[in-house]
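Subject: design request, 215 residues
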């Protein structure tokens, strides 16, 4: 039974919600108040997938942002993000179908995201995915966000499973590093459209058959 997958843990931004640009644009809106900006190239190569507070620490180190402004910028960024969530966050059929089928088949489902609790809760509800989840973990539930594996370790522990029984769905470098470090099986996706029932089941079947072949 060691090769049997029993749970799927999803990252949120870029996996279940097409929110990467929302976070990028919202933070830049807040930074613009103080004449700062993260370029698209910097976002994609350095900042993508990190918690906002981690980004602000890096901006203080690299661009001279005053640490005294962190709380205010973080608060403004959250407000701007939620404005975009209420405007743009809508259900996607292929996600609803995937999670409902997986749930029906007996898999445990969770989300582990570097976002704050309120963002995850609102986005999952607006995307009509909240009812399929056993729980979600935010950056407020851990000491270290991704790329540290703490968040995924906590999710696996809360599921009362071993890493070998879990699949993690991730899309960006920091998240993939965290997922791999947890010891779980990692399904890497490029866009939210890759996160569908067929791809997830194909990956689960591949992992399980590989396990059988190794026995």
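Subject: RE: design request

Done. Sequence follows.
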């Amino acid at each position: 039974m060691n090769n049997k997958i029993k749970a799927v843990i999803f990252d949120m931004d870029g996996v279940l919600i097409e929110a990467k640009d929302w976070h990028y644009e919202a933070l830049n809106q807040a930074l613009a108040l103080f004449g700062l900006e993260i370029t698209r190239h910097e976002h994609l190569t350095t900042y993508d997938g990190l918690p906002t507070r981690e980004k602000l620490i890096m901006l203080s180190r690299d661009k001279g942002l005053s640490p005294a402004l962190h709380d205010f910028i973080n608060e403004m960024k959250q407000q701007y993000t939620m404005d975009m969530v209420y405007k743009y966050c809508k259900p996607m059929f292929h996600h609803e179908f995937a999670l409902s089928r997986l749930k029906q088949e007996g898999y445990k489902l969770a989300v582990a995201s570097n976002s704050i609790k309120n963002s995850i809760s609102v986005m999952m509800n607006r995307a009509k995915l909240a009812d399929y989840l056993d729980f979600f973990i935010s950056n407020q539930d851990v000491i270290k966000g991704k790329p540290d594996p703490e968040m995924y370790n906590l999710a696996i522990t809360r599921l009362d499973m071993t890493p070998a029984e879990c699949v993690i769905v991730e899309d960006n470098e920091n998240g993939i590093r965290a997922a791999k470090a947890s010891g779980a099986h990692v399904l890497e996706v490029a866009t939210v459209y890759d996160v569908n029932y067929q791809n997830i089941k194909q990956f689960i079947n591949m992992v399980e058959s590989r396990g059988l072949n190794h026995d």
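The mean pLDDT is 94.
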